[in-house]
């Protein structure tokens, strides 16, 4: 009787989503976010210089586009050499999820 009452209260107060998710424990390789921020900043600086040079010296839009795309590749390679990709190992635990409950009358 108490179990039925508890079940009715849960159904009345919460939205219930059935989402079965299972994952075994393991390891995952993820790029280091700080190193990627350094790489992105390096690339943004070089890209800005490339655009300044292209728009300041070249009048033809087609040539500008080719100049920018050609130099972006070299800038990306130079920044990646300066800030190589570093992978961090993240251990994931055993995960078992069957139901998601969200409160109906809040937030």
Verbal overview:
This protein is of the alpha+beta class and 107 residues long. Helix 2 runs antiparallel to helix 3 (61-82). A two-stranded antiparallel sheet has the order 1-4. A two-stranded antiparallel sheet has the order 2-3. The chain contains three helices and four strands.
Task: Please tag this protein with its features.
two-stranded antiparallel ribbon, 3 helices, 107 residues
Structure summary:
By secondary structure, the protein is of the alpha+beta class.
Q: What is the number of E strands?
A: 4
User: How much β-strand is present in the residues?
Assistant: 25-35%
Give the overall shape.
elongated
User: Strands across the major sheet, in which order?
Assistant: 1-4
The first-to-last residue Cα distance is: 31 Å
Helix content: 55-70%
Unreliable spans? none
Structural class: alpha+beta
SSE run: HEEHHEE
Helical stretch tally: 3
What's the average pLDDT?
91
Biggest pleated-sheet summary? 2 strands, antiparallel
